[in-house]
Amino acid sequence: MDLAVLLILVGLHTAPPGTAPGPSWHGDAQDIINRKCLTCHRDGGVGPFPLETYKDVTKRSRMIAEVVSSGLMPPWHATPTPEGQESPWQNDQSLTAREKDVLLAWLTSDQPLGDPSAAPASPTFRSEWSIGTPDLVFDFGDPIAVPAEGTMPYVYRTTEMDVTTDSWVSAWEVLPSDPSVVHHVLVFLLDADSDARPSDTRGFFAAYVPGLGSRVYQPGQAKQLPAGSRLLFQVHYTPNGKAATDQTRVGIRLAEEPPEHEVYAVGIADRRLSIPPGAAAHEEGTSLTVPRAVHVLSVMPHMHLRGAAFQAELEAPDGTRRTLLEVPNYDFNWQLSYQFKDPPLVQRGETLHITGTFDNSEANPANPDPGRRVRWGRQTEDEMLICYVEYVRASLGDRIRQPGR
Ligand code: HEC
Fold first, then answer.
1. Nearest CA to ligand 1 atom 17
2. Which of 56, 86, 195, 292 has the highest local Cβ count within 10 Å?
3. Strand partners, 340
Protein backbone atom coordinates (compact mmCIF):
# COMPACT_ATOMS: atom_id res chain seq x y z
CA MET A 1 0.00 0.00 0.00
CA ASP A 2 1.37 3.40 -0.83
CA LEU A 3 1.29 6.55 1.26
CA ALA A 4 -1.74 8.00 -0.52
CA VAL A 5 -3.86 4.98 0.40
CA LEU A 6 -2.61 5.14 3.98
CA LEU A 7 -3.63 8.79 4.16
CA ILE A 8 -7.09 7.95 2.86
CA LEU A 9 -7.40 5.28 5.53
CA VAL A 10 -6.33 7.71 8.23
CA GLY A 11 -8.86 10.12 6.78
CA LEU A 12 -11.56 7.47 7.13
CA HIS A 13 -10.95 7.26 10.81
CA THR A 14 -11.12 11.00 11.42
CA ALA A 15 -14.44 11.18 9.59
CA PRO A 16 -16.93 13.65 11.08
CA PRO A 17 -19.17 12.54 13.95
CA GLY A 18 -22.26 10.68 12.81
CA THR A 19 -20.46 8.54 10.20
CA ALA A 20 -19.42 4.93 10.98
CA PRO A 21 -16.62 4.83 13.58
CA GLY A 22 -13.21 3.50 12.55
CA PRO A 23 -11.90 0.15 13.68
CA SER A 24 -11.03 -0.47 17.32
CA TRP A 25 -8.65 -2.89 19.07
CA HIS A 26 -11.25 -5.11 20.72
CA GLY A 27 -13.77 -4.83 17.90
CA ASP A 28 -11.42 -5.41 14.92
CA ALA A 29 -7.63 -5.43 15.20
CA GLN A 30 -7.22 -7.86 18.11
CA ASP A 31 -9.01 -10.68 16.29
CA ILE A 32 -6.82 -10.24 13.20
CA ILE A 33 -3.62 -10.22 15.25
CA ASN A 34 -4.80 -13.26 17.26
CA ARG A 35 -5.52 -15.33 14.17
CA LYS A 36 -2.67 -14.22 11.90
CA CYS A 37 0.26 -13.31 14.16
CA LEU A 38 0.11 -15.13 17.52
CA THR A 39 1.13 -18.55 16.18
CA CYS A 40 4.62 -17.02 16.15
CA HIS A 41 4.44 -13.74 18.09
CA ARG A 42 3.59 -15.02 21.56
CA ASP A 43 5.53 -15.73 24.69
CA GLY A 44 7.84 -18.64 23.82
CA GLY A 45 6.95 -18.45 20.10
CA VAL A 46 9.46 -18.09 17.25
CA GLY A 47 8.71 -14.41 16.57
CA PRO A 48 11.20 -11.92 18.04
CA PHE A 49 8.56 -10.39 20.36
CA PRO A 50 5.01 -11.13 21.53
CA LEU A 51 1.99 -9.28 20.10
CA GLU A 52 -0.40 -10.57 22.73
CA THR A 53 -1.64 -7.35 24.31
CA TYR A 54 -2.83 -3.90 23.25
CA LYS A 55 0.45 -2.50 24.58
CA ASP A 56 2.64 -5.09 22.78
CA VAL A 57 1.05 -3.93 19.54
CA THR A 58 0.73 -0.17 20.04
CA LYS A 59 4.34 0.28 21.09
CA ARG A 60 5.42 -1.23 17.73
CA SER A 61 2.60 0.17 15.61
CA ARG A 62 4.85 1.93 13.09
CA MET A 63 7.00 -1.11 12.48
CA ILE A 64 3.92 -3.35 12.26
CA ALA A 65 2.24 -1.01 9.76
CA GLU A 66 5.43 -1.12 7.67
CA VAL A 67 5.80 -4.92 7.54
CA VAL A 68 2.06 -5.44 7.01
CA SER A 69 1.82 -2.97 4.15
CA SER A 70 5.00 -4.26 2.48
CA GLY A 71 3.73 -7.85 2.80
CA LEU A 72 6.80 -8.99 4.79
CA MET A 73 4.51 -10.21 7.56
CA PRO A 74 2.83 -12.61 7.92
CA PRO A 75 5.28 -14.68 5.85
CA TRP A 76 3.36 -16.08 2.86
CA HIS A 77 4.59 -15.83 -0.70
CA ALA A 78 2.03 -17.47 -2.99
CA THR A 79 0.04 -15.17 -5.30
CA PRO A 80 -2.68 -13.58 -3.15
CA THR A 81 -6.17 -15.01 -3.53
CA PRO A 82 -8.39 -12.52 -5.42
CA GLU A 83 -10.78 -10.57 -3.19
CA GLY A 84 -14.04 -12.43 -2.64
CA GLN A 85 -12.57 -15.86 -3.48
CA GLU A 86 -11.68 -18.53 -0.97
CA SER A 87 -7.98 -19.33 -0.60
CA PRO A 88 -7.08 -22.76 -2.03
CA TRP A 89 -4.50 -23.24 0.74
CA GLN A 90 -5.25 -24.96 4.01
CA ASN A 91 -2.28 -23.36 5.75
CA ASP A 92 -2.72 -19.86 4.27
CA GLN A 93 -1.59 -17.46 6.97
CA SER A 94 -1.69 -14.31 4.83
CA LEU A 95 -3.95 -11.36 5.57
CA THR A 96 -6.92 -10.90 3.25
CA ALA A 97 -7.08 -7.50 1.53
CA ARG A 98 -9.85 -6.53 3.96
CA GLU A 99 -7.93 -7.63 7.06
CA LYS A 100 -4.93 -5.68 5.83
CA ASP A 101 -6.99 -2.52 5.28
CA VAL A 102 -8.69 -2.75 8.68
CA LEU A 103 -5.43 -3.43 10.52
CA LEU A 104 -3.63 -0.57 8.78
CA ALA A 105 -6.54 1.81 9.33
CA TRP A 106 -6.46 1.03 13.05
CA LEU A 107 -2.64 1.18 13.32
CA THR A 108 -2.48 4.59 11.65
CA SER A 109 -5.41 6.02 13.68
CA ASP A 110 -5.22 7.03 17.34
CA GLN A 111 -5.72 3.32 18.06
CA PRO A 112 -8.99 3.29 20.01
CA LEU A 113 -9.35 0.41 22.47
CA GLY A 114 -13.06 -0.11 21.82
CA ASP A 115 -15.50 -2.08 23.91
CA PRO A 116 -13.83 -4.78 26.07
CA SER A 117 -17.03 -6.84 25.96
CA ALA A 118 -16.51 -7.15 22.17
CA ALA A 119 -13.03 -8.69 22.69
CA PRO A 120 -12.45 -12.02 20.90
CA ALA A 121 -11.79 -15.11 23.04
CA SER A 122 -8.06 -15.58 23.73
CA PRO A 123 -6.65 -18.22 21.45
CA THR A 124 -5.20 -21.33 23.04
CA PHE A 125 -2.01 -22.99 21.92
CA ARG A 126 -0.73 -26.39 22.88
CA SER A 127 2.30 -26.08 25.09
CA GLU A 128 4.77 -28.34 23.31
CA TRP A 129 3.61 -30.60 20.48
CA SER A 130 0.96 -28.87 18.38
CA ILE A 131 -0.08 -32.27 16.90
CA GLY A 132 -0.95 -33.61 20.36
CA THR A 133 1.07 -36.19 22.30
CA PRO A 134 3.22 -38.12 19.82
CA ASP A 135 3.44 -41.92 19.89
CA LEU A 136 7.14 -41.78 18.96
CA VAL A 137 9.76 -39.08 19.63
CA PHE A 138 13.28 -39.09 18.17
CA ASP A 139 16.07 -36.61 18.78
CA PHE A 140 19.09 -36.32 16.53
CA GLY A 141 21.63 -37.27 19.19
CA ASP A 142 23.89 -34.95 21.22
CA PRO A 143 22.92 -31.27 21.32
CA ILE A 144 24.72 -29.07 18.78
CA ALA A 145 26.62 -25.97 19.85
CA VAL A 146 25.84 -22.93 17.70
CA PRO A 147 28.43 -20.15 18.03
CA ALA A 148 27.42 -16.52 18.50
CA GLU A 149 28.94 -15.40 15.19
CA GLY A 150 29.82 -16.65 11.74
CA THR A 151 28.15 -19.15 9.45
CA MET A 152 27.74 -22.88 10.00
CA PRO A 153 27.80 -25.59 7.33
CA TYR A 154 24.62 -27.70 7.24
CA VAL A 155 24.56 -30.28 10.02
CA TYR A 156 23.64 -33.86 9.05
CA ARG A 157 22.65 -36.40 11.70
CA THR A 158 21.26 -39.91 11.36
CA THR A 159 19.07 -41.51 14.01
CA GLU A 160 18.02 -45.14 14.41
CA MET A 161 14.28 -45.45 14.96
CA ASP A 162 13.96 -49.04 16.25
CA VAL A 163 10.64 -49.40 14.45
CA THR A 164 10.31 -53.16 14.04
CA THR A 165 7.03 -53.39 12.12
CA ASP A 166 5.85 -51.37 9.12
CA SER A 167 3.87 -48.45 10.58
CA TRP A 168 1.74 -45.54 9.35
CA VAL A 169 2.34 -41.90 10.18
CA SER A 170 -0.83 -39.82 10.59
CA ALA A 171 0.94 -36.69 11.87
CA TRP A 172 4.47 -35.40 12.40
CA GLU A 173 6.14 -32.42 13.99
CA VAL A 174 9.72 -31.15 13.97
CA LEU A 175 10.62 -29.32 17.18
CA PRO A 176 13.98 -27.58 17.73
CA SER A 177 14.89 -26.97 21.39
CA ASP A 178 16.19 -23.49 20.50
CA PRO A 179 14.19 -22.15 17.54
CA SER A 180 16.02 -18.80 17.69
CA VAL A 181 19.03 -20.26 15.82
CA VAL A 182 17.28 -22.76 13.54
CA HIS A 183 16.77 -21.53 9.98
CA HIS A 184 15.27 -24.73 8.62
CA VAL A 185 15.28 -28.49 9.12
CA LEU A 186 14.63 -31.11 6.47
CA VAL A 187 14.09 -34.69 7.62
CA PHE A 188 14.49 -37.66 5.27
CA LEU A 189 13.70 -41.34 5.77
CA LEU A 190 16.54 -43.72 4.98
CA ASP A 191 15.62 -47.33 4.42
CA ALA A 192 17.27 -50.11 6.41
CA ASP A 193 20.22 -50.72 4.11
CA SER A 194 20.87 -47.44 2.27
CA ASP A 195 24.03 -45.66 3.37
CA ALA A 196 23.80 -42.36 5.22
CA ARG A 197 24.40 -40.27 2.12
CA PRO A 198 21.46 -37.91 1.70
CA SER A 199 20.11 -37.57 -1.83
CA ASP A 200 18.18 -34.29 -1.32
CA THR A 201 15.21 -35.57 -3.29
CA ARG A 202 14.51 -39.16 -2.17
CA GLY A 203 12.80 -40.03 1.11
CA PHE A 204 11.59 -36.53 1.95
CA PHE A 205 9.68 -36.92 5.20
CA ALA A 206 9.23 -33.72 7.23
CA ALA A 207 10.33 -30.08 7.35
CA TYR A 208 10.57 -27.20 9.77
CA VAL A 209 10.70 -23.46 9.25
CA PRO A 210 9.87 -20.94 12.00
CA GLY A 211 6.19 -21.20 12.77
CA LEU A 212 5.54 -24.11 10.40
CA GLY A 213 6.89 -27.46 11.46
CA SER A 214 4.03 -29.90 11.62
CA ARG A 215 1.59 -31.74 9.44
CA VAL A 216 -1.57 -33.63 10.27
CA TYR A 217 -2.84 -35.74 7.37
CA GLN A 218 -6.54 -35.98 6.56
CA PRO A 219 -8.45 -38.94 8.01
CA GLY A 220 -7.81 -41.98 5.84
CA GLN A 221 -4.36 -40.70 4.73
CA ALA A 222 -0.99 -41.66 6.22
CA LYS A 223 2.64 -41.96 5.30
CA GLN A 224 4.45 -45.27 5.46
CA LEU A 225 7.21 -45.81 8.00
CA PRO A 226 8.89 -49.07 6.96
CA ALA A 227 10.42 -51.28 9.65
CA GLY A 228 14.11 -50.56 10.14
CA SER A 229 13.94 -46.98 8.80
CA ARG A 230 16.35 -44.34 10.02
CA LEU A 231 15.88 -40.59 10.11
CA LEU A 232 18.33 -38.25 8.47
CA PHE A 233 18.23 -34.66 9.76
CA GLN A 234 19.58 -31.77 7.69
CA VAL A 235 19.72 -28.68 9.92
CA HIS A 236 20.67 -25.16 8.88
CA TYR A 237 21.71 -23.07 11.87
CA THR A 238 22.04 -19.29 11.72
CA PRO A 239 24.10 -17.76 14.55
CA ASN A 240 22.23 -14.78 16.01
CA GLY A 241 24.73 -12.99 18.25
CA LYS A 242 24.31 -15.27 21.27
CA ALA A 243 25.93 -18.69 21.63
CA ALA A 244 23.24 -21.38 21.80
CA THR A 245 22.75 -25.13 21.82
CA ASP A 246 19.99 -26.98 20.02
CA GLN A 247 18.67 -30.50 20.03
CA THR A 248 15.95 -30.95 17.41
CA ARG A 249 13.33 -33.68 17.81
CA VAL A 250 10.74 -35.28 15.56
CA GLY A 251 7.40 -36.38 17.05
CA ILE A 252 5.24 -38.88 15.19
CA ARG A 253 1.64 -39.92 15.68
CA LEU A 254 0.81 -43.35 14.28
CA ALA A 255 -2.39 -44.43 12.57
CA GLU A 256 -3.87 -47.54 14.10
CA GLU A 257 -4.51 -49.27 10.80
CA PRO A 258 -3.24 -49.02 7.24
CA PRO A 259 -4.80 -45.97 5.59
CA GLU A 260 -7.16 -45.95 2.69
CA HIS A 261 -4.70 -43.61 0.87
CA GLU A 262 -0.94 -43.79 1.29
CA VAL A 263 0.78 -40.39 1.20
CA TYR A 264 3.85 -40.33 -1.06
CA ALA A 265 6.46 -37.62 -1.42
CA VAL A 266 8.69 -36.94 -4.41
CA GLY A 267 11.34 -34.30 -5.03
CA ILE A 268 11.65 -33.01 -8.59
CA ALA A 269 15.05 -31.42 -9.11
CA ASP A 270 16.85 -29.49 -11.83
CA ARG A 271 20.48 -30.45 -11.14
CA ARG A 272 21.78 -29.03 -14.41
CA LEU A 273 21.09 -25.42 -13.54
CA SER A 274 23.72 -22.87 -14.52
CA ILE A 275 23.14 -19.24 -13.65
CA PRO A 276 25.32 -16.66 -15.46
CA PRO A 277 27.15 -13.99 -13.44
CA GLY A 278 25.09 -10.84 -12.92
CA ALA A 279 21.86 -12.22 -14.47
CA ALA A 280 18.88 -10.47 -12.86
CA ALA A 281 16.07 -12.81 -13.90
CA HIS A 282 17.52 -16.10 -15.09
CA GLU A 283 15.01 -18.93 -15.55
CA GLU A 284 15.74 -22.60 -14.99
CA GLY A 285 13.31 -25.47 -15.03
CA THR A 286 12.54 -29.10 -15.45
CA SER A 287 9.49 -31.27 -16.24
CA LEU A 288 8.00 -34.58 -15.25
CA THR A 289 5.22 -36.47 -17.02
CA VAL A 290 2.95 -37.90 -14.35
CA PRO A 291 2.87 -41.72 -14.72
CA ARG A 292 -0.50 -42.23 -12.96
CA ALA A 293 -3.47 -40.22 -11.73
CA VAL A 294 -2.82 -38.56 -8.36
CA HIS A 295 -4.21 -35.93 -6.03
CA VAL A 296 -1.57 -33.37 -5.08
CA LEU A 297 -1.67 -32.60 -1.34
CA SER A 298 1.13 -30.08 -1.05
CA VAL A 299 3.89 -28.33 -3.00
CA MET A 300 7.11 -27.01 -1.48
CA PRO A 301 9.64 -25.10 -3.60
CA HIS A 302 13.27 -25.11 -2.49
CA MET A 303 15.89 -22.69 -3.80
CA HIS A 304 18.73 -20.79 -2.14
CA LEU A 305 19.76 -17.13 -1.79
CA ARG A 306 19.35 -16.25 -5.47
CA GLY A 307 15.85 -17.76 -5.71
CA ALA A 308 13.45 -14.95 -6.73
CA ALA A 309 10.27 -16.59 -8.05
CA PHE A 310 8.84 -20.06 -8.49
CA GLN A 311 6.10 -21.58 -10.58
CA ALA A 312 4.61 -25.08 -10.90
CA GLU A 313 2.34 -25.60 -13.89
CA LEU A 314 0.48 -28.59 -15.31
CA GLU A 315 0.20 -29.19 -19.03
CA ALA A 316 -2.44 -31.57 -20.41
CA PRO A 317 -1.61 -33.71 -23.48
CA ASP A 318 -3.70 -31.26 -25.59
CA GLY A 319 -1.44 -28.40 -24.51
CA THR A 320 -3.79 -26.65 -22.04
CA ARG A 321 -1.95 -25.33 -19.04
CA ARG A 322 -3.06 -24.62 -15.47
CA THR A 323 -1.14 -23.24 -12.55
CA LEU A 324 -0.54 -25.44 -9.52
CA LEU A 325 1.47 -22.91 -7.49
CA GLU A 326 2.81 -19.46 -8.22
CA VAL A 327 5.26 -17.77 -5.83
CA PRO A 328 6.06 -14.33 -7.28
CA ASN A 329 8.36 -13.31 -4.41
CA TYR A 330 10.32 -16.34 -3.29
CA ASP A 331 12.14 -15.82 0.02
CA PHE A 332 14.86 -18.28 1.06
CA ASN A 333 14.24 -17.39 4.69
CA TRP A 334 10.83 -19.00 4.59
CA GLN A 335 10.90 -22.52 3.16
CA LEU A 336 7.10 -22.67 3.02
CA SER A 337 5.02 -25.65 1.99
CA TYR A 338 1.69 -24.86 0.34
CA GLN A 339 -1.02 -27.34 1.33
CA PHE A 340 -4.20 -27.66 -0.72
CA LYS A 341 -7.60 -27.59 0.97
CA ASP A 342 -9.08 -29.57 -1.89
CA PRO A 343 -6.20 -31.59 -3.43
CA PRO A 344 -6.38 -31.18 -7.23
CA LEU A 345 -6.59 -34.23 -9.45
CA VAL A 346 -3.72 -34.67 -11.90
CA GLN A 347 -4.28 -37.13 -14.72
CA ARG A 348 -1.82 -39.69 -16.03
CA GLY A 349 0.04 -38.11 -18.95
CA GLU A 350 -0.14 -34.54 -17.67
CA THR A 351 3.25 -32.87 -17.44
CA LEU A 352 4.39 -30.94 -14.39
CA HIS A 353 6.67 -28.04 -15.33
CA ILE A 354 8.62 -26.34 -12.57
CA THR A 355 10.33 -23.01 -13.18
CA GLY A 356 12.64 -21.12 -10.85
CA THR A 357 13.72 -17.54 -11.49
CA PHE A 358 17.10 -16.61 -10.04
CA ASP A 359 18.50 -13.14 -9.34
CA ASN A 360 22.29 -13.29 -9.53
CA SER A 361 22.63 -9.51 -9.88
CA GLU A 362 24.07 -6.95 -7.47
CA ALA A 363 20.55 -5.67 -6.84
CA ASN A 364 19.77 -8.84 -4.86
CA PRO A 365 20.87 -7.95 -1.31
CA ALA A 366 21.05 -11.65 -0.34
CA ASN A 367 23.42 -12.48 -3.24
CA PRO A 368 26.78 -13.63 -1.81
CA ASP A 369 28.67 -13.19 -5.12
CA PRO A 370 27.14 -11.66 -8.29
CA GLY A 371 30.42 -12.30 -10.16
CA ARG A 372 30.13 -16.08 -10.13
CA ARG A 373 28.43 -18.59 -12.42
CA VAL A 374 26.29 -20.57 -10.02
CA ARG A 375 25.61 -24.27 -10.25
CA TRP A 376 23.86 -26.98 -8.22
CA GLY A 377 25.25 -27.48 -4.73
CA ARG A 378 24.19 -28.05 -1.21
CA GLN A 379 25.67 -24.92 0.38
CA THR A 380 23.59 -21.76 0.36
CA GLU A 381 26.12 -19.98 -1.89
CA ASP A 382 25.40 -22.65 -4.53
CA GLU A 383 21.89 -23.14 -5.86
CA MET A 384 19.13 -25.71 -5.97
CA LEU A 385 15.79 -25.94 -7.70
CA ILE A 386 13.67 -28.63 -6.11
CA CYS A 387 9.92 -29.02 -5.90
CA TYR A 388 8.78 -31.43 -3.19
CA VAL A 389 5.31 -32.77 -3.92
CA GLU A 390 3.15 -34.81 -1.56
CA TYR A 391 0.42 -36.85 -3.21
CA VAL A 392 -2.00 -39.75 -2.92
CA ARG A 393 -2.98 -42.03 -5.79
CA ALA A 394 -6.34 -41.18 -7.31
CA SER A 395 -9.00 -43.84 -7.17
CA LEU A 396 -10.72 -45.14 -10.29
CA GLY A 397 -13.87 -43.11 -9.55
CA ASP A 398 -11.89 -39.87 -9.85
CA ARG A 399 -10.86 -40.79 -13.36
CA ILE A 400 -14.34 -41.73 -14.50
CA ARG A 401 -15.79 -38.48 -13.19
CA GLN A 402 -13.31 -36.36 -15.13
CA PRO A 403 -12.70 -38.09 -18.44
CA GLY A 404 -10.40 -36.74 -21.10
CA ARG A 405 -8.48 -34.38 -18.88
C1 HEC B 1 5.13 -18.00 10.84
C2 HEC B 1 5.57 -17.19 11.94
C3 HEC B 1 5.17 -15.73 11.94
C4 HEC B 1 3.92 -15.16 11.72
C5 HEC B 1 2.61 -15.88 11.44
C6 HEC B 1 4.12 -13.73 11.86
N7 HEC B 1 5.43 -13.45 12.15
FE8 HEC B 1 6.22 -11.60 12.37
N9 HEC B 1 8.09 -12.42 12.54
C10 HEC B 1 8.36 -13.78 12.61
C11 HEC B 1 9.80 -13.97 12.72
C12 HEC B 1 10.51 -15.31 12.85
C13 HEC B 1 10.37 -12.68 12.70
C14 HEC B 1 11.85 -12.33 12.71
C15 HEC B 1 12.17 -12.47 11.25
C16 HEC B 1 13.32 -11.84 10.73
O17 HEC B 1 14.10 -11.27 11.49
O18 HEC B 1 13.38 -11.94 9.49
C19 HEC B 1 9.27 -11.73 12.59
C20 HEC B 1 9.43 -10.36 12.56
C21 HEC B 1 8.38 -9.45 12.67
C22 HEC B 1 8.53 -8.02 12.81
C23 HEC B 1 9.86 -7.28 12.89
C24 HEC B 1 10.33 -6.96 11.50
C25 HEC B 1 11.66 -6.26 11.51
O26 HEC B 1 11.90 -5.55 10.51
O27 HEC B 1 12.43 -6.41 12.45
C28 HEC B 1 7.28 -7.48 12.90
C29 HEC B 1 6.92 -6.03 13.13
C30 HEC B 1 6.34 -8.58 12.78
N31 HEC B 1 7.04 -9.75 12.63
C32 HEC B 1 4.96 -8.43 12.80
C33 HEC B 1 4.08 -9.47 12.51
C34 HEC B 1 2.64 -9.29 12.39
C35 HEC B 1 1.90 -7.96 12.62
C36 HEC B 1 2.11 -10.49 12.08
C37 HEC B 1 0.66 -10.85 11.80
C38 HEC B 1 -0.07 -9.97 10.92
C39 HEC B 1 3.22 -11.45 12.01
N40 HEC B 1 4.39 -10.78 12.27
C41 HEC B 1 3.09 -12.81 11.73
C42 HEC B 1 7.44 -14.81 12.52
C43 HEC B 1 6.10 -14.63 12.21
1. 48
2. 56
3. 89
